[in-house]
Protein backbone atom coordinates (compact mmCIF):
# COMPACT_ATOMS: atom_id res chain seq x y z
CA UNK A 1 0.00 0.00 0.00
CA UNK A 2 1.66 3.28 0.95
CA UNK A 3 5.28 3.65 1.99
CA UNK A 4 6.21 5.69 5.04
CA UNK A 5 9.50 7.03 6.39
CA UNK A 6 10.38 8.96 9.54
CA UNK A 7 13.85 10.17 10.49
CA UNK A 8 15.54 12.04 13.31
CA UNK A 9 19.31 12.35 13.51
CA UNK A 10 22.19 14.50 12.35
CA UNK A 11 22.03 14.04 8.58
CA UNK A 12 19.99 16.20 6.19
CA UNK A 13 16.56 14.66 6.72
CA UNK A 14 15.44 15.37 3.18
CA UNK A 15 18.17 13.15 1.73
CA UNK A 16 17.48 10.31 4.13
CA UNK A 17 13.72 10.47 3.69
CA UNK A 18 13.88 10.71 -0.11
CA UNK A 19 16.27 7.77 -0.26
CA UNK A 20 13.87 5.80 1.91
CA UNK A 21 10.95 6.73 -0.33
CA UNK A 22 12.88 5.62 -3.39
CA UNK A 23 13.21 2.20 -1.81
CA UNK A 24 9.55 2.13 -0.81
CA UNK A 25 8.10 3.42 -4.06
CA UNK A 26 7.07 -0.12 -5.02
CA UNK A 27 4.41 0.17 -2.29
CA UNK A 28 2.55 2.91 -4.12
CA UNK A 29 3.34 5.59 -6.64
CA UNK A 30 0.24 7.75 -6.99
CA UNK A 31 1.91 10.69 -5.22
CA UNK A 32 4.74 11.45 -2.82
CA UNK A 33 5.58 14.05 -0.22
CA UNK A 34 7.91 15.05 2.60
CA UNK A 35 7.89 17.34 5.62
CA UNK A 36 11.14 18.57 7.17
CA UNK A 37 11.42 20.58 10.38
CA UNK A 38 13.54 23.70 9.84
CA UNK A 39 15.61 24.18 13.02
CA UNK A 40 16.01 27.89 12.35
CA UNK A 41 12.44 28.95 11.69
CA UNK A 42 10.73 26.00 13.47
CA UNK A 43 8.52 25.63 10.41
CA UNK A 44 7.46 22.23 9.18
CA UNK A 45 8.15 22.68 5.47
CA UNK A 46 6.21 20.43 3.17
CA UNK A 47 6.68 19.45 -0.48
CA UNK A 48 4.30 17.03 -2.19
CA UNK A 49 3.41 16.10 -5.71
CA UNK A 50 1.02 13.83 -7.57
CA UNK A 51 2.53 11.00 -9.63
CA UNK A 52 5.74 9.10 -9.19
CA UNK A 53 8.54 10.13 -6.90
CA UNK A 54 10.40 11.61 -9.87
CA UNK A 55 7.81 14.43 -9.90
CA UNK A 56 8.59 15.26 -6.30
CA UNK A 57 12.30 15.07 -7.05
CA UNK A 58 11.82 17.62 -9.83
CA UNK A 59 9.86 19.87 -7.48
CA UNK A 60 12.55 19.65 -4.83
CA UNK A 61 15.26 20.64 -7.30
CA UNK A 62 13.95 24.19 -6.85
CA UNK A 63 13.44 24.04 -3.07
CA UNK A 64 15.60 23.91 0.05
CA UNK A 65 14.24 21.94 2.99
CA UNK A 66 16.91 22.20 5.69
CA UNK A 67 16.70 20.18 8.88
CA UNK A 68 17.54 16.82 10.37
CA UNK A 69 14.04 15.66 11.31
CA UNK A 70 11.64 14.62 8.59
CA UNK A 71 8.82 12.37 7.48
CA UNK A 72 7.83 11.16 4.02
CA UNK A 73 5.22 9.21 2.14
CA UNK A 74 4.66 7.50 -1.16
CA UNK A 75 0.98 6.89 -1.81
CA UNK A 76 -1.32 4.23 -3.18
CA UNK A 77 -4.57 6.18 -3.26
CA UNK A 78 -7.63 5.03 -1.33
CA UNK A 79 -9.57 8.07 -0.07
CA UNK A 80 -9.32 10.87 -2.60
CA UNK A 81 -7.92 11.00 -6.10
CA UNK A 82 -4.15 10.94 -6.67
CA UNK A 83 -3.72 14.73 -6.84
CA UNK A 84 -1.27 17.22 -5.32
CA UNK A 85 -3.71 18.29 -2.66
CA UNK A 86 -4.42 14.74 -1.55
CA UNK A 87 -0.72 13.89 -1.39
CA UNK A 88 0.73 13.38 2.09
CA UNK A 89 1.94 14.82 4.47
CA UNK A 90 -1.27 16.42 5.67
CA UNK A 91 -1.36 19.25 8.16
CA UNK A 92 -3.63 20.74 10.77
CA UNK A 93 -5.13 24.25 10.64
CA UNK A 94 -1.94 26.08 11.65
CA UNK A 95 0.65 23.88 9.97
CA UNK A 96 2.08 22.81 13.34
CA UNK A 97 1.38 19.11 12.82
CA UNK A 98 2.36 17.01 9.79
CA UNK A 99 1.07 13.47 9.37
CA UNK A 100 1.73 10.67 6.91
CA UNK A 101 -0.56 7.67 6.94
CA UNK A 102 -0.78 4.21 5.48
CA UNK A 103 -4.17 2.51 5.74
CA UNK A 104 -7.82 3.42 5.65
CA UNK A 105 -9.95 4.89 8.42
CA UNK A 106 -13.43 3.48 8.44
CA UNK A 107 -14.91 6.24 10.63
CA UNK A 108 -13.31 9.07 8.67
CA UNK A 109 -16.60 10.63 7.53
CA UNK A 110 -17.77 10.91 11.12
CA UNK A 111 -14.38 12.30 12.20
CA UNK A 112 -14.34 14.88 9.41
CA UNK A 113 -17.91 15.99 10.15
CA UNK A 114 -17.04 16.48 13.82
CA UNK A 115 -13.92 18.46 12.95
CA UNK A 116 -15.79 20.68 10.50
CA UNK A 117 -18.48 21.36 13.12
CA UNK A 118 -15.75 22.33 15.57
CA UNK A 119 -14.40 24.91 13.09
CA UNK A 120 -11.51 23.08 11.42
CA UNK A 121 -10.84 23.68 7.76
CA UNK A 122 -10.03 20.48 5.88
CA UNK A 123 -8.22 21.07 2.61
CA UNK A 124 -8.09 17.57 1.08
CA UNK A 125 -10.40 14.62 0.35
CA UNK A 126 -8.35 12.21 2.43
CA UNK A 127 -9.10 10.40 5.65
CA UNK A 128 -5.56 11.20 6.82
CA UNK A 129 -6.08 14.91 7.14
CA UNK A 130 -8.61 14.33 9.92
CA UNK A 131 -5.82 12.77 11.98
CA UNK A 132 -3.68 15.91 11.74
CA UNK A 133 -6.54 18.04 13.02
CA UNK A 134 -7.42 15.59 15.80
CA UNK A 135 -3.79 15.63 16.99
CA UNK A 136 -3.89 19.44 16.85
CA UNK A 137 -6.93 19.44 19.16
CA UNK A 138 -5.43 17.00 21.64
CA UNK A 139 -2.03 18.67 21.67
CA UNK A 140 -3.33 22.20 21.99
CA UNK A 141 -5.81 21.23 24.72
CA UNK A 142 -2.90 20.00 26.85
CA UNK A 143 -1.31 23.49 26.78
CA UNK A 144 2.28 24.15 27.83
CA UNK A 145 4.44 21.05 27.95
CA UNK A 146 2.03 19.11 25.76
CA UNK A 147 3.07 15.58 24.95
CA UNK A 148 2.89 14.71 21.23
CA UNK A 149 3.01 10.96 21.87
CA UNK A 150 0.12 11.25 24.33
CA UNK A 151 -1.88 13.18 21.73
CA UNK A 152 -1.18 10.47 19.12
CA UNK A 153 -2.18 7.71 21.57
CA UNK A 154 -5.44 9.47 22.32
CA UNK A 155 -6.22 9.97 18.65
CA UNK A 156 -5.28 6.39 17.78
CA UNK A 157 -7.96 5.21 20.19
CA UNK A 158 -10.53 7.20 18.25
CA UNK A 159 -9.65 5.63 14.90
CA UNK A 160 -11.46 2.65 13.39
CA UNK A 161 -9.67 0.78 10.65
CA UNK A 162 -6.05 0.23 9.84
CA UNK A 163 -3.26 2.70 10.12
CA UNK A 164 0.35 3.44 10.39
CA UNK A 165 0.84 7.07 11.33
CA UNK A 166 4.06 9.00 11.46
CA UNK A 167 3.75 12.45 12.97
CA UNK A 168 5.98 15.50 13.43
CA UNK A 169 5.22 18.72 15.32
CA UNK A 170 6.98 22.03 14.82
CA UNK A 171 7.48 22.45 18.60
CA UNK A 172 9.23 19.06 18.89
CA UNK A 173 12.67 19.31 17.23
CA UNK A 174 13.83 15.91 18.55
CA UNK A 175 10.72 13.77 18.22
CA UNK A 176 8.93 11.80 15.54
CA UNK A 177 5.95 9.75 16.70
CA UNK A 178 4.71 6.59 14.99
CA UNK A 179 1.66 4.42 15.65
CA UNK A 180 0.40 1.24 14.08
CA UNK A 181 -2.66 -0.98 13.80
CA UNK A 182 -2.77 -3.88 11.34
CA UNK A 183 -0.13 -2.50 8.99
CA UNK A 184 3.65 -2.72 9.08
CA UNK A 185 5.93 -0.32 10.88
CA UNK A 186 9.58 -1.04 11.63
CA UNK A 187 12.10 0.89 13.70
CA UNK A 188 15.64 1.26 12.39
CA UNK A 189 18.08 1.64 15.26
CA UNK A 190 21.09 3.79 14.38
CA UNK A 191 23.84 5.58 16.25
CA UNK A 192 22.69 9.10 17.09
CA UNK A 193 19.89 8.67 14.58
CA UNK A 194 16.77 6.54 14.35
CA UNK A 195 14.29 5.64 11.66
CA UNK A 196 10.71 4.56 11.17
CA UNK A 197 9.58 2.91 7.96
CA UNK A 198 7.09 0.60 6.35
CA UNK A 199 9.90 -1.85 5.75
CA UNK A 200 13.60 -2.15 6.39
CA UNK A 201 14.63 -1.42 2.79
CA UNK A 202 13.99 2.26 3.57
CA UNK A 203 16.83 2.48 6.09
CA UNK A 204 19.06 -0.48 5.24
CA UNK A 205 21.71 1.93 3.88
CA UNK A 206 22.09 3.37 7.40
CA UNK A 207 21.46 0.53 9.81
CA UNK A 208 20.69 -3.18 9.75
CA UNK A 209 19.41 -3.27 13.35
CA UNK A 210 15.64 -3.27 13.46
CA UNK A 211 12.69 -3.71 15.77
CA UNK A 212 9.14 -4.43 14.64
CA UNK A 213 6.34 -2.36 16.13
CA UNK A 214 3.41 -4.41 17.39
CA UNK A 215 -0.32 -3.95 17.19
CA UNK A 216 -1.63 -0.74 18.80
CA UNK A 217 1.76 0.52 19.82
CA UNK A 218 3.14 4.03 19.69
CA UNK A 219 6.80 4.84 19.06
CA UNK A 220 8.64 7.90 20.29
CA UNK A 221 11.67 8.28 18.04
CA UNK A 222 14.46 10.57 19.21
CA UNK A 223 18.09 11.00 18.16
CA UNK A 224 19.42 9.18 21.19
CA UNK A 225 16.74 6.58 21.72
CA UNK A 226 13.42 4.98 21.09
CA UNK A 227 10.53 4.38 23.45
CA UNK A 228 7.57 2.16 22.60
CA UNK A 229 4.32 2.18 24.53
CA UNK A 230 0.87 0.69 24.28
CA UNK A 231 -2.09 2.99 23.71
CA UNK A 232 -2.34 3.59 27.46
CA UNK A 233 1.22 4.86 27.62
CA UNK A 234 2.77 1.81 29.29
CA UNK A 235 6.26 1.13 27.99
CA UNK A 236 6.54 -2.21 26.20
CA UNK A 237 9.59 -4.33 25.49
CA UNK A 238 10.34 -5.77 22.07
CA UNK A 239 12.98 -7.78 20.28
CA UNK A 240 15.50 -6.26 17.96
CA UNK A 241 16.83 -8.22 15.01
CA UNK A 242 19.65 -7.99 12.53
CA UNK A 243 18.73 -7.74 8.84
CA UNK A 244 20.90 -10.28 7.06
CA UNK A 245 20.96 -8.66 3.63
CA UNK A 246 22.38 -5.32 2.60
CA UNK A 247 21.97 -2.31 0.32
CA UNK A 248 23.24 -4.17 -2.72
CA UNK A 249 20.31 -6.59 -2.45
CA UNK A 250 17.91 -3.66 -2.68
CA UNK A 251 19.55 -2.09 -5.75
CA UNK A 252 19.04 -2.76 -9.47
CA UNK A 253 22.68 -3.82 -10.04
CA UNK A 254 22.71 -2.69 -13.66
CA UNK A 255 19.39 -4.23 -14.69
CA UNK A 256 16.86 -1.99 -16.37
CA UNK A 257 14.16 -3.18 -13.98
CA UNK A 258 14.11 -4.81 -10.57
CA UNK A 259 11.86 -7.49 -12.03
CA UNK A 260 14.57 -8.60 -14.47
CA UNK A 261 17.13 -8.72 -11.69
CA UNK A 262 14.79 -10.63 -9.42
CA UNK A 263 14.09 -13.21 -12.13
CA UNK A 264 17.84 -13.82 -12.46
CA UNK A 265 18.25 -14.11 -8.70
CA UNK A 266 16.01 -17.16 -8.52
CA UNK A 267 18.60 -19.94 -8.48
CA UNK A 268 20.22 -18.36 -5.45
CA UNK A 269 16.91 -17.59 -3.77
CA UNK A 270 15.77 -21.19 -4.06
CA UNK A 271 19.16 -22.48 -2.94
CA UNK A 272 18.88 -20.28 0.15
CA UNK A 273 15.37 -21.46 0.87
CA UNK A 274 15.98 -25.17 0.57
CA UNK A 275 19.63 -25.38 1.60
CA UNK A 276 20.78 -27.06 4.81
CA UNK A 277 17.49 -28.72 5.58
CA UNK A 278 18.81 -32.25 5.97
CA UNK A 279 20.01 -33.15 9.47
CA UNK A 280 22.94 -35.43 10.28
CA UNK A 281 20.44 -38.19 10.96
CA UNK A 282 19.28 -37.94 7.33
CA UNK A 283 15.92 -36.50 8.33
CA UNK A 284 14.48 -33.33 6.85
CA UNK A 285 14.63 -30.58 9.47
CA UNK A 286 12.33 -27.58 9.39
CA UNK A 287 13.11 -26.60 12.96
CA UNK A 288 11.60 -23.16 12.69
CA UNK A 289 8.14 -24.65 12.22
CA UNK A 290 7.69 -25.17 15.95
CA UNK A 291 4.63 -27.38 15.69
CA UNK A 292 5.10 -30.59 17.64
CA UNK A 293 5.12 -33.93 15.84
CA UNK A 294 2.14 -34.92 17.95
CA UNK A 295 0.14 -31.95 16.73
CA UNK A 296 1.16 -32.62 13.14
CA UNK A 297 -0.04 -36.20 13.48
CA UNK A 298 -3.38 -34.87 14.72
CA UNK A 299 -4.18 -32.89 11.58
CA UNK A 300 -7.07 -34.11 9.47
CA UNK A 301 -6.97 -31.45 6.80
CA UNK A 302 -4.86 -28.65 5.40
CA UNK A 303 -6.26 -25.35 4.19
CA UNK A 304 -4.02 -22.95 2.28
CA UNK A 305 -5.05 -19.30 2.13
CA UNK A 306 -3.36 -16.66 0.00
CA UNK A 307 -3.93 -14.01 -2.67
CA UNK A 308 -2.69 -13.43 -6.21
CA UNK A 309 0.52 -15.19 -7.11
CA UNK A 310 0.86 -16.58 -3.59
CA UNK A 311 -2.48 -18.33 -4.17
CA UNK A 312 -0.97 -20.01 -7.22
CA UNK A 313 1.91 -21.26 -5.06
CA UNK A 314 -0.73 -22.63 -2.72
CA UNK A 315 -2.41 -24.48 -5.59
CA UNK A 316 0.87 -26.22 -6.35
CA UNK A 317 1.23 -26.97 -2.64
CA UNK A 318 -2.09 -28.83 -2.73
CA UNK A 319 -0.73 -31.31 -5.30
CA UNK A 320 2.43 -31.95 -3.28
CA UNK A 321 0.80 -32.14 0.15
CA UNK A 322 -2.00 -34.44 -0.98
CA UNK A 323 0.39 -36.66 -2.91
CA UNK A 324 2.86 -37.04 -0.07
CA UNK A 325 0.65 -36.90 3.02
CA UNK A 326 -2.82 -37.97 1.78
CA UNK A 327 -4.23 -35.13 3.88
CA UNK A 328 -7.19 -33.48 2.17
CA UNK A 329 -5.94 -30.04 1.16
CA UNK A 330 -8.01 -27.09 0.06
CA UNK A 331 -6.65 -23.87 -1.34
CA UNK A 332 -8.69 -20.76 -0.98
CA UNK A 333 -8.40 -17.14 -1.97
CA UNK A 334 -7.99 -15.43 1.39
CA UNK A 335 -10.61 -12.75 0.79
CA UNK A 336 -13.24 -15.46 0.17
CA UNK A 337 -12.22 -17.79 2.98
CA UNK A 338 -12.79 -15.31 5.77
CA UNK A 339 -16.40 -14.57 4.94
CA UNK A 340 -17.90 -17.96 4.20
CA UNK A 341 -17.77 -19.45 7.71
CA UNK A 342 -15.19 -22.11 6.80
CA UNK A 343 -15.10 -25.44 8.58
CA UNK A 344 -11.74 -25.40 10.36
CA UNK A 345 -10.74 -26.36 13.89
CA UNK A 346 -8.01 -27.87 16.03
CA UNK A 347 -7.50 -30.67 13.51
CA UNK A 348 -6.77 -28.19 10.71
CA UNK A 349 -3.45 -26.83 9.58
CA UNK A 350 -3.98 -23.49 7.87
CA UNK A 351 -1.04 -22.36 5.76
CA UNK A 352 -1.05 -18.63 5.03
CA UNK A 353 1.25 -17.76 2.13
CA UNK A 354 2.31 -14.16 1.68
CA UNK A 355 5.48 -12.60 0.34
CA UNK A 356 4.95 -9.33 2.19
CA UNK A 357 3.42 -10.87 5.28
CA UNK A 358 1.11 -7.86 5.35
CA UNK A 359 -1.67 -8.66 2.87
CA UNK A 360 -4.84 -7.67 4.72
CA UNK A 361 -7.02 -10.41 3.21
CA UNK A 362 -4.55 -13.11 4.22
CA UNK A 363 -4.04 -11.61 7.66
CA UNK A 364 -7.79 -11.54 8.30
CA UNK A 365 -8.12 -15.12 7.05
CA UNK A 366 -5.46 -16.36 9.44
CA UNK A 367 -6.98 -14.43 12.34
CA UNK A 368 -10.32 -16.04 11.61
CA UNK A 369 -8.73 -19.49 11.39
CA UNK A 370 -7.00 -19.03 14.74
CA UNK A 371 -10.25 -17.90 16.32
CA UNK A 372 -11.73 -21.21 15.17
CA UNK A 373 -8.88 -23.04 16.90
CA UNK A 374 -6.90 -23.98 13.80
CA UNK A 375 -3.10 -24.07 13.71
CA UNK A 376 -1.69 -21.41 11.43
CA UNK A 377 1.63 -21.70 9.65
CA UNK A 378 2.90 -18.67 7.75
CA UNK A 379 5.01 -19.00 4.63
CA UNK A 380 6.41 -15.52 4.19
CA UNK A 381 9.43 -13.63 2.97
CA UNK A 382 9.26 -10.88 5.54
CA UNK A 383 10.77 -11.28 8.98
CA UNK A 384 8.76 -9.49 11.64
CA UNK A 385 5.72 -9.04 9.40
CA UNK A 386 2.20 -9.14 10.85
CA UNK A 387 1.44 -12.53 9.30
CA UNK A 388 4.68 -13.96 10.70
CA UNK A 389 3.98 -12.62 14.15
CA UNK A 390 0.38 -13.71 14.32
CA UNK A 391 0.99 -17.30 13.22
CA UNK A 392 1.79 -20.33 15.35
CA UNK A 393 4.71 -21.25 13.14
CA UNK A 394 6.63 -19.52 10.38
CA UNK A 395 8.52 -20.84 7.41
CA UNK A 396 10.62 -17.99 6.02
CA UNK A 397 11.32 -18.06 2.33
CA UNK A 398 14.74 -16.59 1.84
CA UNK A 399 14.44 -14.76 -1.42
CA UNK A 400 15.79 -11.43 -0.14
CA UNK A 401 13.93 -8.18 -0.79
CA UNK A 402 11.53 -8.23 -3.72
CA UNK A 403 10.96 -4.72 -5.05
CA UNK A 404 9.16 -5.18 -8.38
CA UNK A 405 5.41 -5.22 -7.91
CA UNK A 406 5.10 -8.39 -9.96
CA UNK A 407 6.23 -11.21 -7.73
CA UNK A 408 8.86 -13.53 -9.22
CA UNK A 409 11.58 -14.86 -6.96
CA UNK A 410 9.27 -14.74 -3.96
CA UNK A 411 6.77 -16.98 -5.75
CA UNK A 412 9.59 -19.30 -6.74
CA UNK A 413 10.70 -19.63 -3.13
CA UNK A 414 7.10 -20.10 -2.00
CA UNK A 415 6.95 -23.08 -4.34
CA UNK A 416 10.14 -24.45 -2.80
CA UNK A 417 8.62 -23.84 0.62
CA UNK A 418 5.35 -25.69 -0.03
CA UNK A 419 7.27 -28.71 -1.29
CA UNK A 420 9.43 -28.70 1.82
CA UNK A 421 6.44 -28.30 4.11
CA UNK A 422 4.69 -31.17 2.30
CA UNK A 423 7.72 -33.39 2.74
CA UNK A 424 8.04 -32.44 6.40
CA UNK A 425 4.40 -33.30 7.07
CA UNK A 426 4.83 -36.61 5.24
CA UNK A 427 7.96 -37.45 7.22
CA UNK A 428 6.35 -36.73 10.58
CA UNK A 429 3.10 -38.50 9.74
CA UNK A 430 5.01 -41.46 8.31
CA UNK A 431 3.24 -41.42 4.96
CA UNK A 432 6.62 -41.39 3.14
CA UNK A 433 9.63 -43.30 4.40
CA UNK A 434 13.02 -41.74 5.02
CA UNK A 435 14.52 -42.85 1.71
CA UNK A 436 11.71 -41.35 -0.27
CA UNK A 437 11.84 -38.06 1.64
CA UNK A 438 15.61 -37.88 1.02
CA UNK A 439 15.14 -38.66 -2.64
CA UNK A 440 12.57 -35.87 -3.07
CA UNK A 441 14.83 -33.51 -1.14
CA UNK A 442 17.70 -34.41 -3.48
CA UNK A 443 15.46 -33.57 -6.45
CA UNK A 444 14.67 -30.22 -4.85
CA UNK A 445 18.34 -29.56 -4.13
CA UNK A 446 19.07 -29.98 -7.85
CA UNK A 447 16.50 -27.34 -8.80
CA UNK A 448 18.63 -24.16 -8.45
CA UNK A 449 20.99 -25.40 -11.18
CA UNK A 450 18.05 -26.33 -13.37
CA UNK A 451 16.50 -22.88 -12.91
CA UNK A 452 19.85 -21.37 -13.88
CA UNK A 453 19.91 -23.58 -16.97
CA UNK A 454 16.31 -22.59 -17.81
CA UNK A 455 17.24 -18.92 -17.56
CA UNK A 456 19.94 -19.38 -20.20
CA UNK A 457 17.36 -20.71 -22.64
CA UNK A 458 14.86 -17.87 -22.59
CA UNK A 459 15.82 -16.02 -25.79
CA UNK A 460 13.19 -17.84 -27.90
CA UNK A 461 10.57 -16.90 -25.29
CA UNK A 462 11.64 -13.26 -25.44
CA UNK A 463 11.52 -13.35 -29.24
CA UNK A 464 7.98 -14.70 -29.39
CA UNK A 465 6.83 -12.27 -26.68
CA UNK A 466 8.07 -9.35 -28.76
CA UNK A 467 6.55 -10.75 -31.94
CA UNK A 468 3.07 -11.04 -30.47
CA UNK A 469 3.19 -8.02 -28.15
CA UNK A 470 0.40 -6.30 -30.10
CA UNK A 471 -2.03 -9.09 -29.20
CA UNK A 472 -4.88 -8.04 -26.93
CA UNK A 473 -5.69 -11.55 -25.73
CA UNK A 474 -3.43 -14.43 -24.69
CA UNK A 475 -4.52 -17.77 -23.28
CA UNK A 476 -2.51 -20.10 -21.06
CA UNK A 477 -3.19 -23.82 -20.75
CA UNK A 478 -1.84 -26.44 -18.38
CA UNK A 479 -2.82 -29.65 -16.67
CA UNK A 480 -2.11 -30.92 -13.17
CA UNK A 481 0.65 -28.71 -11.64
CA UNK A 482 0.88 -26.96 -15.00
CA UNK A 483 -2.56 -25.48 -14.39
CA UNK A 484 -1.55 -23.18 -11.49
CA UNK A 485 1.39 -22.04 -13.58
CA UNK A 486 -1.00 -21.26 -16.46
CA UNK A 487 -2.94 -19.09 -14.00
CA UNK A 488 0.28 -17.46 -12.89
CA UNK A 489 1.35 -16.76 -16.49
CA UNK A 490 -2.00 -15.12 -17.16
CA UNK A 491 -1.89 -13.04 -13.97
CA UNK A 492 1.61 -11.80 -14.75
CA UNK A 493 0.62 -10.79 -18.27
CA UNK A 494 -2.53 -8.96 -17.12
CA UNK A 495 -0.63 -7.22 -14.38
CA UNK A 496 2.28 -6.08 -16.54
CA UNK A 497 0.95 -5.69 -20.08
CA UNK A 498 -2.71 -4.79 -19.38
CA UNK A 499 -4.00 -7.33 -21.90
CA UNK A 500 -6.75 -9.81 -21.40
CA UNK A 501 -5.07 -13.05 -20.33
CA UNK A 502 -6.68 -16.17 -18.95
CA UNK A 503 -5.34 -19.45 -17.67
CA UNK A 504 -7.33 -22.66 -18.03
CA UNK A 505 -6.96 -26.33 -17.21
CA UNK A 506 -6.28 -27.64 -20.71
CA UNK A 507 -9.01 -30.27 -20.41
CA UNK A 508 -11.56 -27.55 -19.78
CA UNK A 509 -11.14 -25.60 -23.03
CA UNK A 510 -13.62 -27.72 -24.95
CA UNK A 511 -16.25 -26.76 -22.35
CA UNK A 512 -16.27 -23.14 -23.47
CA UNK A 513 -12.94 -21.30 -23.70
CA UNK A 514 -12.07 -22.83 -27.08
CA UNK A 515 -14.64 -20.43 -28.53
CA UNK A 516 -12.15 -17.63 -27.82
CA UNK A 517 -9.68 -19.01 -30.31
CA UNK A 518 -9.51 -17.47 -33.74
CA UNK A 519 -6.83 -17.26 -36.37
CA UNK A 520 -3.56 -16.24 -34.69
CA UNK A 521 -4.76 -16.18 -31.06
CA UNK A 522 -1.61 -16.78 -28.99
CA UNK A 523 -1.91 -19.73 -26.61
CA UNK A 524 0.91 -20.61 -24.23
CA UNK A 525 0.77 -24.32 -23.39
CA UNK A 526 2.65 -25.83 -20.47
CA UNK A 527 3.23 -29.23 -22.02
CA UNK A 528 5.97 -30.62 -19.79
CA UNK A 529 6.40 -34.33 -19.34
CA UNK A 530 3.91 -35.97 -16.98
CA UNK A 531 1.28 -38.68 -16.95
CA UNK A 532 -1.31 -36.43 -18.58
CA UNK A 533 0.98 -35.26 -21.38
CA UNK A 534 -0.75 -37.32 -24.11
CA UNK A 535 -4.08 -35.72 -23.23
CA UNK A 536 -2.45 -32.32 -23.30
CA UNK A 537 -1.01 -32.98 -26.73
CA UNK A 538 -4.55 -33.71 -27.89
CA UNK A 539 -5.60 -30.33 -26.49
CA UNK A 540 -2.77 -28.61 -28.37
CA UNK A 541 -3.96 -30.29 -31.57
CA UNK A 542 -7.50 -29.07 -30.90
CA UNK A 543 -6.49 -25.43 -30.56
CA UNK A 544 -3.97 -25.61 -33.40
CA UNK A 545 -6.72 -26.91 -35.68
CA UNK A 546 -8.72 -23.77 -34.87
CA UNK A 547 -5.97 -21.37 -35.82
CA UNK A 548 -4.20 -20.70 -32.51
CA UNK A 549 -0.56 -19.68 -32.48
CA UNK A 550 0.78 -22.31 -30.11
CA UNK A 551 3.71 -21.43 -27.86
CA UNK A 552 4.60 -24.75 -26.31
CA UNK A 553 6.79 -25.22 -23.26
CA UNK A 554 8.16 -28.75 -23.41
CA UNK A 555 10.65 -30.88 -21.53
CA UNK A 556 13.99 -31.74 -23.10
CA UNK A 557 13.71 -34.88 -25.22
CA UNK A 558 9.92 -34.91 -25.35
CA UNK A 559 8.83 -34.53 -28.97
CA UNK A 560 5.15 -35.38 -28.51
CA UNK A 561 3.88 -31.80 -28.95
CA UNK A 562 6.58 -30.66 -31.39
CA UNK A 563 4.46 -31.12 -34.57
CA UNK A 564 1.79 -28.79 -33.19
CA UNK A 565 4.08 -26.08 -31.78
CA UNK A 566 4.50 -22.83 -33.64
CA UNK A 567 7.09 -21.87 -31.06
CA UNK A 568 8.86 -24.42 -28.92
CA UNK A 569 10.46 -23.45 -25.61
CA UNK A 570 12.61 -26.14 -24.03
CA UNK A 571 13.15 -26.59 -20.31
CA UNK A 572 15.29 -29.17 -18.51
CA UNK A 573 13.78 -32.37 -17.19
CA UNK A 574 12.81 -32.81 -13.55
CA UNK A 575 10.19 -34.80 -11.64
CA UNK A 576 6.84 -33.73 -13.03
CA UNK A 577 5.53 -32.71 -9.59
CA UNK A 578 8.42 -30.24 -9.31
CA UNK A 579 8.05 -28.86 -12.83
CA UNK A 580 6.44 -25.54 -11.70
CA UNK A 581 9.86 -24.57 -10.33
CA UNK A 582 11.02 -24.51 -13.95
CA UNK A 583 7.90 -23.58 -15.93
CA UNK A 584 7.48 -20.48 -13.79
CA UNK A 585 10.57 -18.98 -15.47
CA UNK A 586 9.18 -18.77 -19.04
CA UNK A 587 5.92 -17.37 -17.61
CA UNK A 588 7.87 -14.53 -15.98
CA UNK A 589 10.15 -13.84 -18.93
CA UNK A 590 7.25 -13.87 -21.38
CA UNK A 591 5.16 -11.33 -19.46
CA UNK A 592 8.10 -9.01 -18.76
CA UNK A 593 9.27 -9.01 -22.37
CA UNK A 594 5.73 -8.61 -23.73
CA UNK A 595 5.12 -5.59 -21.47
CA UNK A 596 8.49 -4.01 -22.22
CA UNK A 597 7.84 -4.39 -25.94
CA UNK A 598 4.71 -2.30 -25.32
CA UNK A 599 6.86 0.34 -23.66
CA UNK A 600 5.54 -0.31 -20.15
CA UNK A 601 7.27 0.00 -16.79
CA UNK A 602 7.37 -3.54 -15.49
CA UNK A 603 8.40 -2.56 -11.97
CA UNK A 604 5.45 -0.30 -11.34
CA UNK A 605 2.39 -1.43 -13.28
CA UNK A 606 -0.58 0.89 -13.21
CA UNK A 607 -3.11 0.83 -10.37
CA UNK A 608 -1.13 -1.69 -8.34
CA UNK A 609 0.98 -1.71 -5.22
CA UNK A 610 3.37 -4.29 -3.89
CA UNK A 611 1.66 -4.90 -0.62
CA UNK A 612 -2.12 -4.77 -0.44
CA UNK A 613 -2.94 -3.81 3.11
CA UNK A 614 -6.63 -3.03 2.66
CA UNK A 615 -9.39 -5.63 2.40
O1 LIG B 1 2.47 -10.19 -0.33
P1 LIG B 1 1.53 -11.25 -0.79
O2 LIG B 1 2.23 -12.47 -1.27
O3 LIG B 1 0.48 -11.58 0.23
O4 LIG B 1 0.79 -10.62 -2.03
C1 LIG B 1 -0.26 -11.29 -2.67
C2 LIG B 1 -0.61 -10.67 -4.00
O5 LIG B 1 -0.99 -9.34 -3.82
C3 LIG B 1 0.59 -10.70 -4.96
O6 LIG B 1 1.04 -12.01 -5.17
C4 LIG B 1 0.18 -10.10 -6.31
O7 LIG B 1 -0.76 -10.90 -6.95
C5 LIG B 1 1.44 -9.91 -7.16
N1 LIG B 1 1.54 -8.54 -7.57
C6 LIG B 1 1.48 -10.77 -8.37
O8 LIG B 1 2.63 -10.55 -9.12
Brief synopsis:
The chain has 615 residues and is an alpha/beta fold.
Structure report:
The chain has 615 residues and is α/β, with parallel strands linked by helices. It folds into three domains: 3-252, Glutamine Phosphoribosylpyrophosphate, subunit 1, domain 1 (4-Layer Sandwich), CATH 3.60.20; 263-445, Rossmann fold, CATH 3.40.50; 453-597, Rossmann fold (3-Layer(aba) Sandwich). It is 35% helix and 22% strand. It has 19 helices and 24 strands. The strands form four sheets. Strands 3-2-4-1-10-9-11-14 form an eight-stranded antiparallel β-sheet, with helices on one face. Helix 18 (533-545) links the parallel strand 22 (522-526) and strand 23 (549-555). The longest helix is centred in the C-terminal third of the chain and has 21 residues, at 409-429. The protein is globular. The structure holds 5-amino-5-deoxy-1-O-phosphono-D-mannitol. Residues 307-310, 354-356, 359, 362, 405-407, 491, 495, 611-612 line the site of 5-amino-5-deoxy-1-O-phosphono-D-mannitol.
Amino acid sequence: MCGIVGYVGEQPALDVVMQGLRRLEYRGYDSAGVAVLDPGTHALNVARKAGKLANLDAELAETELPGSLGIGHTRWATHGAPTDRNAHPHRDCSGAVAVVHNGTLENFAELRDGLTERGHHLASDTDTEAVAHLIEERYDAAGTGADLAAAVRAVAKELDGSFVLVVAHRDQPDLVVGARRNLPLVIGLGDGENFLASDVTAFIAYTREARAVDQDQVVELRREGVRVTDLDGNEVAGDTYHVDWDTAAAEKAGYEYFMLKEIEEQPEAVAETIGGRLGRDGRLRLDELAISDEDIRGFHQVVIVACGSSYHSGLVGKYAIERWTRLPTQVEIASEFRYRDPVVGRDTLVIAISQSGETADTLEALRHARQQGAWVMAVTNTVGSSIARESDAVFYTRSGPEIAVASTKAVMTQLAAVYLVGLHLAQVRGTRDGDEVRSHYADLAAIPDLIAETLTRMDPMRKVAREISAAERVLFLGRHVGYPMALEGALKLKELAYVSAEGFPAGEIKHGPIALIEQGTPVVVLATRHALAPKLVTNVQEIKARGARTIVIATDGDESATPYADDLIRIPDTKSLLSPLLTLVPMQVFSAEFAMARGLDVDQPRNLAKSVTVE
